[in-house]
Design goal:
The chain is mainly β. Helix content is 0%, strand content 51%. It has no helices and 60 strands.
Length: 667
């Protein structure tokens, strides 16, 4: 409860040019008095104020008549002259004029300014409203009468928390002194125990006011956090205290939730406040352990055949492992794929991944070294690849080049930043020199010798032979292919045939009776240019009568055919035989057939007769001594001419008789 208001009068001596400061919302009066004069013939008075903040309520002028006021302009002027000229007779200190004002509530609070004067001015310290006394012809004393309310307010009954204190603040206006029930004189007091507390406010004019407040004690909530917690940098740390009772939380980071995420290391404080404002505080130290360094490079691309080496600057106690099984801070890779690095330090695990792509090298394979033959044009190179750049050591820039000379060709192919290179040796071997000579002609039944003498070569003849030398009979056209270091050359030669007389056969060596006449004969051959016997006889026939070795040579051009026979004549007993030398098949005589006529004492063991035409062909043969040739050949009449015969007779005595000769057939 507050004490009743009281009124007091404050006398302020205001001189011209001085300023009076008053309180907002206060009513006050200004009395104009004349001191030391009892008769005033005339006077003037002016008061200036801000009508926006000071309201003029009215005036009283018991001793003056004809006073004109204009308060709305914020300026009050009074000028009075006694019309009779005798002056105004007043009682000393009587009131000439009373002006009634009120300071408006909205006036702003300003600093108190004391009027500047040589005389002390006593006044109660007002806030913000100024009234300025303008110069007049007389000095006046202004008496300000103000309504002053002294009121103290301790507010509503309060509570405070156990083990805490509460500050009681007296809200008092225009109080000169405040005294509490515990004897303390101050505007506020801090108390630590519950109970009823009083305060009394005093003013200089003996006004007073008092009030009381009841202070009750409330138990605060209890909150608990552990002393400390540690976690890895990438882990979530949730701080969630244990609380007894209902309370709101205030964390040192500004959060008001029941739990918070501690994102940084440090000292965290939480305050729990219940509905009565009682608090409890606890704190915790949060330690965040760093993760091991596992930052891998950006995804990258390399060329096949290159090696990606990754080296991590290791933490002192960190251990590292890679997804390829490598242990340690360094690993190398040659295959495309994902690379995973895992690091562990102080129980904290960190990882990172990256992709590496090993781009394929350009397609480049010139193949094995090659050998070719002189005169060939060779194409070497690789398939065309879009976007590839080709560089040969010979200056060409195309994927395929041609060459006909021995050289080493090197190619470099660049594609998508990857380079491949290869080289190939091209050797052009000389062709073998093959010459079988000019075409030639040789005799029938003879051979031409053909040969190739080229070292380290292989030979293939058209005859199927593979030797360096072959014998060829005419007529033939022979081709040879010679391969020397893969280079093949060939030549062809024609072997013409020179017709050779038919082979002649004079028969086996023979022993004949000395009574016989031996005829050696060679069949007629139209190719024969000459028949030459060993005794110089020229011709187809040679009659001999003595033992010896006889030979005959027949030739056509330079082709020669020969044979030899040894004839031995000895004395022997044998029957007589007769061989005619002419016959006529169409005659009616006994010479119509040709054969051998034996005597009656001939005892024949075996018999053989062969008859030849002029070309050496057998036209008749028989082993029957009684069979005669009728002059026909294969049932056709043989032409007239000379035919050669050979007869071999073996007797029971084992003696052998040979007869050879010619018989003429007539038609």
């Amino acid at each position: 409860m507050s004490a009743p208001n009281c009124l007091f009068t404050q006398t302020v001596n205001i001189y011209f040019g001085d300023t009076l400061y008053v309180d907002p919302s206060q009513e006050f009066w200004i009395d104009l008095r004349v001191n030391g004069f009892n008769q005033i013939p005339a006077f003037s008075f002016a008061l200036q104020y801000d009508s926006a903040y000071i309201q003029f309520l009215g005036s009283e002028h018991p001793s003056l008549t004809g006073v004109a006021l204009n308060p709305d302009l914020g300026l009050i002027k009074i000028a009075w002259v006694n019309g009779t000229g005798t002056g105004l007779t007043l009682i000393d200190s009587s009131i000439l004029l009373r002006l009634h004002f009120r300071a408006r509530q909205q006036y702003p609070t300003t600093t108190i300014v004391r009027p500047s004067t040589v005389l002390p001015i006593e006044f109660y310290q007002f806030d913000g409203i100024s009234l300025t006394l303008l110069p007049t012809e007389i000095e006046a004393q202004v008496i300000v009468t103000r309504v002053c309310t002294v009121k103290i307010d301790l507010g509503k009954d309060k509570t405070f928390c156990s083990k805490d204190s509460i500050e009681l603040i007296a809200n008092c206006q225009n109080c000169s002194q405040i005294e509490w029930s515990n004897g303390i004189q101050a505007a506020s007091v801090k108390v630590f125990t519950p109970g009823l507390y009083f305060a009394t406010a005093l003013a200089p004019q003996a006004c007073y006011s008092h009030d009381s407040v009841w202070i009750a004690e409330i138990n605060p909530p209890e909150i608990y956090l552990s002393d400390s917690v540690s976690a890895c940098l990438d882990e979530v740390i949730i701080l969630s205290p244990t609380i007894s009772g209902n309370a709101t939380l205030q964390w040192s980071n500004g959060a008001t939730t029941l739990s918070i995420e501690a994102k940084t290391a440090g000292f965290y404080v939480v305050t729990a406040t219940n509905a009565d404002g009682c608090r409890d505080i606890d704190s915790i130290i949060v330690t965040i352990k760093p993760l091991p360094l596992t930052q891998l490079p950006m995804d990258t691309m390399l060329c096949k055949g290159q090696q990606l080496i990754i080296e991590i600057t290791p933490e002192l106690t960190a251990k590292y492992s890679w997804n390829d099984g490598t242990i340690g801070a360094t690993a190398s890779f040659t295959q495309s794929g994902e690379i995973v690095l895992i690091g562990i330090m102080d129980g904290c695990l960190a990882s990172d991944t990256m992709m590496v792509l090993f781009k394929p090298l350009p397609i480049l394979d010139l193949g094995p070294d090659l050998q070719f033959c002189d005169g060939e044009m060779v194409q070497i190179g690789v398939p065309i690849q879009v976007g590839a750049i080709y560089e040969w050591n010979t200056g060409e820039s195309t994927p395929i080049i041609f060459t006909s000379q021995t050289a080493i060709k090197a190619l470099r192919v660049t594609k998508d930043g990857c380079i491949a290179s290869d080289s190939i040796s091209i050797l052009f071997n000389p062709l073998p020199k093959v010459d079988l000579g000019p075409n030639q002609a040789i005799c029938s039944s003879t051979y031409a010798t053909l040969q190739v003498n080229i070292l380290n070569s292989t030979v293939e003849w058209s005859t199927g032979d593979v030797s360096d030398e072959i014998l060829v009979m005419p007529p033939s056209v022979v081709t040879v292919k010679v391969n020397l270091n893969g280079c093949i050359a060939s030549d062809t030669v024609e072997i013409a045939e020179i017709p050779t007389p038919d082979a002649i056969f004079l028969g086996e060596d023979i022993v004949v009776c000395d009574t016989a006449e031996m005829l050696l004969t060679v069949p007629f051959d139209p190719l024969v240019d000459q028949y030459l016997w060993s005794d110089g006889t020229i011709g187809q026939d040679l009659f001999i009568q003595q033992s010896g070795t006889y030979s005959v040579s027949v030739n056509h051009k330079y082709c020669v055919v020969s044979d030899t026979i040894t004839v031995t004549f000895q004395h022997c007993q044998q029957p007589k035989i007769f061989i005619p030398n002419v016959f006529a098949p169409e005659s009616s005589t006994k010479n119509a057939n040709f054969g051998v006529f034996f005597s009656t004492e001939a005892n024949i063991k075996s018999f053989e007769i062969n008859i030849f035409d002029r070309w050496g062909s057998i036209v008749f043969q028989s082993s029957d001594p009684t069979e005669f040739w009728d002059g026909s050949i294969k049932n056709h009449s043989a032409p007239t001419g000379v035919y050669v015969y050979q007869i071999r007779i073996q007797y029971e005595t084992e003696d052998v008789e040979l007869r050879a000769g010619a018989v003429t057939l007539f038609r």
